[in-house]
């Protein structure tokens, strides 16, 4: 896994603001803030997150998101 992503918060923090993340992903700023607060991105949003150039440029993959989710489930 890309060491850059130890949490879903790291994914949200690819964007300089949660508002920009929301705009690029198609979610509301409140949703993205909840993702960060809960340290979890619902899997129904993964495709939208992965489709952004920011995610692609950072090396974020579906496998990395799945690994983060599996860590979350074990916690």
What is the total domain count? 1
Envelope shape: globular
Portion in helices: 55-70%
CATH topology: 434 Repressor (Amino-terminal Domain)
Per DSSP E runs of 2 or more residues, the count of β-strands stands at 0
Largest sheet: none
Proportion of beta-strand residues: under 5%
Rounded to the nearest angstrom, the distance between the terminal CA atoms is: 18 Å
Order of helices and strands: HHHHHH
How many helices? The count is 6
Report the CATH C-level class: Mainly Alpha
CATH hierarchy: architecture: Orthogonal Bundle
The SS-based structural class is mainly alpha
Averaged pLDDT, please? 93
Radius of gyration: 11 Å
Quick structural gist:
The protein has 75 residues and is mainly α. It contains six helices and no strands.
List the helices and strands and how they pair.
Layout: H1 8-12, H2 18-25, H3 29-38, H4 46-50, H5 53-58, H6 62-74
Helix pairs in contact: 2-3
How would you describe what is shown here?
- By secondary structure, the chain is an all-alpha fold.
- The chain has one domain (8-74): 434 Repressor (Amino-terminal Domain), CATH 1.10.260.
- The protein has 6 helices and no strands.
- The protein has helices at residues 8-12, 18-25, 29-38, 46-50, 53-58, 62-74.
- Helix 2 packs across helix 3 (29-38).
- The longest helix has 13 residues, at 62-74.
- The two termini are 18 Å apart.
